[in-house]
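tool=predict chain=A
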Amino acid sequence: MALPDITRSGDYVFRTSLPKLLLVDELSFGIDAENGYQALGKLKDSGITIVLVEQSTTRALDIADHVCVLESGRTVWQGSAEIARTDPAMFDAYLGLEPGGAQENC
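tool=predict ok
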């Protein structure tokens, strides 16, 4: 489902179909990412499991409970979002950077 469809009809679609899992790819690159993230937050609060593929670590970590960093289809780091914010191993696995060195759009 495209982001405009989620933001315009999200409440109706998700409340009537009651999905257990939602897959979202690169929400930060969408037309209206801010509303999309607000919608994801509401969906998460309703108990829906969300798998988010995202390059914007700041936004993704704001709603994530668990983080997996993949490289060439292999998990190179995983842990809680809270730990991901400060773990040097996560930054090294993701960008080769120290904590705090990640750019806003990465």
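Residues 47 and 60 are 17 Å apart (CA to CA). The chain has two domains: 1-54, 56-106.
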